[in-house]
Design a protein that fits this description.
- The radius of gyration is 19 Å and the shape is elongated.
- By secondary structure, the chain is mainly α.
- It has five helices and no strands.
- The protein has helices spanning 2-47, 54-70, 90-93, 95-115, 119-140.
- The longest helix is centred in the N-terminal third of the chain and has 46 residues, at 2-47.
Length: 144
C-alpha cells in the first residue's frame, strides 16, 4: 500500500513538473503577445497613422513593465523548448545579460511613463523604450 502511494505521488510530481514547464513557456509567450499587441497602436502613433492617445501609451508601458518584471523567472533551464517558443539558446548561455536587458527595458518603460505627458514627450521618450525592446529581440529571439 505504501509503495503504491509513493508511486502515485511520484507520478503526480512528474506530471506537475511537465505541466509547469509548459505553463512557463505559455506564460512568457502570452506576456510577449500582450506587449506586442500593446505596441501596435504605439507604433501607429509614431508613424502618424493614428492620433496620439496617452491612455494607450500608458497601457503599453504598463504592459512592458509587467513583462520585464515577470520575464526573468520564466526562463528556467528546463524551459528551453516547448510550444512555439522563439527563445534563443543564447538566453541560457548568457542569462545575466538577458536579465540585465529585461531590467533596462523595465526601467526605460517606467521612466518613460513618468516623463510622457504629451505627443512631443512621447515621440522623444518612446524610442528609448522600443530600442531596449529591440535590443533584446535582436540578441535573444529566434526569428521565424
Amino acid at each position: 500500500m505504501l509503495r503504491s502511494l509513493i508511486a502515485a505521488a511520484a507520478v503526480t510530481v512528474c506530471a506537475t513538473v511537465a505541466f509547469a514547464e509548459t505553463d512557463v513557456v505559455s506564460h512568457r509567450i502570452e506576456l510577449m503577445k500582450n506587449a506586442g499587441d500593446a505596441t501596435k497602436p504605439v507604433a501607429d502613433m509614431l508613424k502618424g497613422a493614428a492620433p496620439f492617445d496617452i491612455e494607450k501609451v500608458k497601457a503599453a508601458l504598463a504592459s512592458y513593465e509587467k513583462a520585464a518584471k515577470e520575464y526573468p523567472s520564466l526562463y528556467p533551464e528546463n524551459s528551453k523548448e516547448g510550444k512555439d517558443t522563439t527563445a534563443s539558446p543564447k538566453i541560457w548561455e548568457n542569462k545575466a545579460d538577458f536579465d540585465a536587458k529585461l531590467a533596462a527595458w523595465g526601467k526605460a518603460s517606467a521612466d518613460a511613463s513618468a516623463k510622457i505627458t504629451d505627443e512631443a514627450s512621447f515621440k522623444s521618450e518612446i524610442k528609448t523604450v522600443l530600442g531596449a525592446c529591440k535590443g533584446c529581440h535582436d540578441d535573444y529571439r529566434i526569428k521565424k
